[in-house]
Write a structure and sequence with these properties.
- The protein is α+β, with helices and mostly antiparallel strands and 494 residues long.
- The chain is globular and about 75 Å long.
- It has helices at 2-14, 22-33, 47-60, 68-79, 86-99, 101-114, 120-123, 151-159, 229-241, 311-326, 394-397, 406-418, 427-441, 449-468, 475-488, and strands at 127-131, 138-142, 192-196, 199-205, 215-219, 246-248, 265-269, 280-284, 293-297, 303-308, 338-339, 342-343, 345-354, 357-366, 400-403.
- Helices cover 38% and strands 16% of the residues.
- Strands 3-4-5-7-6-13-14-10-9-8 form a ten-stranded antiparallel beta sheet.
- A hairpin with a 2-residue loop joins strand 13 (345-354) and strand 14 (357-366).
- The mean pLDDT is 93.
C-alpha cells in the first residue's frame, strides 16, 4: 500500500482534502487501480510520477487496458483529486484577480501544470531552435509532444459507440469529461469563466503548449469562427482582462485558416514572437484616425500594425481595413477577392498591450487557388512542402514554425548524407539535400552539418512565409501594398 499512501499524502498536501479524508481517498484510489497495490517505491516521488506508477499498477491488475488512451483516462481521473471543483476554482481565481490579475493567472497556470493537464514532460520532447533571417530570428519547433495513434487504438475507436458529446474539443462540456478511446481525457480539465462584451467565455491552457503559457480563449457556445468587427472588439478586451498576454485569431477561411473553424476561439500566451519584435518599414496615418499610429511591418507576410490608446477607435479602423480588403482585387499581382460568390479575403488579427498602448496586427490573407498552385496561391509552394505543407495558421504567421514529427528522423538522415554516411535520403528531400551537400563540401559554410541544417530549415520557413504573404517583398509587391493602403484612405502620401 506504500504507493497509494504516498499518493494520498501528496493529494492532501496539494488540495483542499485534509488528514481526515485519508481513508476515503485510499478507498477511492483502490477502486480505480485495484487492491493488489503493495509495492515499494524509490527515488523521486512527485505527484505525476506517483500517478504514472498507479496507472501501471491498474494495467497490471486488469482494471484498464494497456492502450495509451485508456491509461490517459485513468491518469487524468487520478489527477482530478488535486484539482478544485470548477466553482471553487473560479471563485478563487476572481478573488485573487481583484488583488493581482497577474497572480490569479500565474496560480491557474501553476495548477494546470501540477495536475498534469499541461503535459510538461511531453512538451519537453519537442525539438526547438532559432534561425537568423532578414526579418529577425525565426523560431522552429519539431512537434514531438502529441503522441500518435497506434493501430490498436484506431481499431478500438472504430468499434466504440459513436458519440457527439462533447461536440468538439473546445466546448465547455470538456470540463471534467472522462474521455474515451477516440476522445482525449479531460477529468482534470478546468476552465475560468469570464464576461467578454456581455457574453460568457472561457479561459484555459493548451495541454500541448507550443510556446510560453499557451492558452485558449473560447466561446461558451459552439458556433463557428468568423472574423468581424466583433473579433477586434473581443481581442482588445481580452488583452485588457489578461495583462501580459497577447491574443490572436486564426483566419476564418480554408487553406489560410486554422484546424478548428467550427468553434469560435482565440489563442494567447506570454510570449514575444518574432513578428512582435519586427521592425517598422513605413509609418503613416489613416484618414479620420489621427490618434492611431499605423505602419507596415518588415515581415515576409503582409502586416499592418495599429497602435493607440482608444480601443473603440482601433476597432473602427480595423473593421474599415477588413471590409476594404474583403472586396479588394489587384489582378496585376494576382490578388483576387472573389471567385464568383466565393470570398477569398480575410485577416489574421493579433492583439497585445505595449507600454499602455493597444497594439493590433492585421495580417492580410488570400486563399484563392490556380492551376499552377492548386494548394493555394498564398500557401507553401510545392518545392517547400518536403519541410512544411500544412496550413499557415496564427502561430506560423507570427514566426514560430510548427513542423511535423517525421522531420526528426528525416533531418538526421539528411545530416548523415551531408557527412557521406548514407548514399541517399527520402526522395522528396533529395534535391534539397544535394544542394546543401554541394555547399557543405565546397566549404561554403563554416560550421557543423547539424548547424547548417538548422539554418537551412529556417531559410525554408522564411520562404514558406514569403509564399503566404500576399504582397511580396520586392518593388512591385511593396508598391501594390501601398496601393491597397491608399484605397483605405491615408493622410498624405506613402
Amino acid at each position: 500500500m506504500e504507493l497509494i499512501q504516498e499518493f494520498v499524502k501528496a493529494i492532501i498536501a496539494r488540495s483542499a482534502y485534509q488528514e481526515l479524508d485519508k481513508i476515503y481517498l485510499t478507498n477511492r484510489i483502490l477502486a480505480l487501480v485495484g487492491e493488489d497495490s503493495a509495492q515499494a517505491i524509490s527515488g523521486k516521488r512527485n505527484l505525476i510520477y506517483l500517478k504514472e506508477k498507479l496507472v501501471a499498477r491498474a494495467v497490471k491488475n486488469g482494471k484498464i487496458g494497456s492502450l495509451r488512451e485508456e491509461r490517459d483516462c485513468l491518469g487524468s481521473q487520478l489527477m482530478d483529486f488535486i484539482t478544485p471543483l470548477p466553482s471553487h476554482l473560479n471563485a478563487q481565481f476572481w478573488s485573487t484577480y481583484e488583488i493581482s490579475p497577474q497572480k490569479a493567472i500565474a496560480d491557474f497556470y501553476q495548477l494546470s501544470q501540477a495536475n498534469d493537464y499541461i503535459k510538461v514532460s511531453a512538451i519537453a520532447k519537442n525539438l526547438t531552435f532559432k534561425s537568423p533571417s532578414p526579418y529577425g530570428d525565426m523560431e522552429i519547433t519539431i512537434n514531438l509532444s502529441k503522441p500518435e495513434k497506434n493501430p490498436k487504438a484506431i481499431a478500438a475507436a472504430k468499434l466504440a459507440k459513436v458519440s457527439s458529446y462533447p461536440q468538439c474539443q473546445l466546448c465547455m462540456e470538456n470540463e471534467g469529461y472522462q474521455g474515451r478511446i477516440d476522445y482525449p481525457a479531460r477529468a482534470n480539465h478546468r476552465i475560468i469563466r469570464f464576461k467578454l462584451n456581455q457574453q460568457e467565455w472561457g479561459f484555459q491552457y493548451s495541454p500541448y503548449a507550443y510556446f510560453k503559457e499557451h492558452c485558449i480563449f473560447l466561446d461558451s457556445q459552439h458556433r463557428p469562427m468568423v472574423i468581424s468587427k466583433e473579433t477586434f472588439r473581443q481581442l482588445l478586451a481580452i488583452v485588457e482582462i489578461f495583462p501580459d498576454y497577447f491574443a490572436g485569431s486564426n483566419a476564418d477561411l480554408p487553406i489560410v485558416g486554422g484546424s478548428i473553424l467550427s468553434h469560435n476561439h482565440y489563442q494567447g500566451g506570454k510570449h514575444d514572437f518574432p513578428m512582435a519584435l519586427a521592425e517598422l518599414e513605413r509609418e503613416f496615418v489613416f484618414k479620420g484616425f489621427p490618434d492611431i499610429k499605423a505602419a507596415i511591418l518588415k515581415w515576409p507576410m503582409s502586416v499592418i500594425r495599429l497602435q493607440g490608446y482608444d480601443s473603440c477607435q482601433m476597432v473602427e479602423l480595423a473593421e474599415k481595413i477588413r471590409l476594404t480588403w474583403r472586396y479588394y482585387s489587384d489582378e496585376k499581382v494576382d490578388i483576387r477577392a472573389f471567385s464568383g460568390d466565393q470570398p477569398h479575403h480575410t485577416i489574421t488579427p493579433i492583439a497585445r498591450r505595449r507600454e499602455g498602448l493597444f497594439e493590433l496586427d492585421l495580417v492580410l490573407r488570400d486563399n484563392h487557388t490556380s492551376p499552377e498552385f492548386p494548394d493555394g496561391v498564398y500557401h507553401p509552394h510545392k518545392e517547400l512542402q518536403h519541410i512544411k505543407k500544412e496550413n499557415i495558421g496564427l502561430i506560423e504567421v507570427m514566426g514560430l514554425a510548427i513542423l511535423p514529427p517525421r522531420l526528426k528522423a528525416e533531418l538526421k538522415e539528411v545530416e548523415m548524407y551531408l557527412l557521406g554516411q548514407v548514399a541517399e535520403v527520402a526522395d522528396y528531400h533529395q534535391e534539397w539535400a544535394d544542394q546543401l551537400k554541394a555547399s557543405y563540401q565546397a566549404k561554403a559554410y563554416e560550421g557543423s552539418a547539424h548547424d547548417l541544417l538548422e539554418k537551412e530549415v529556417g531559410k525554408v520557413f522564411v520562404r514558406v512565409l514569403e509564399d503566404a504573404g500576399v504582397y511580396k517583398m520586392d518593388l512591385q509587391g511593396r508598391a501594390a501594398f501601398a496601393d491597397f493602403i491608399k484605397s483605405v484612405g491615408i493622410e498624405g502620401d506613402l
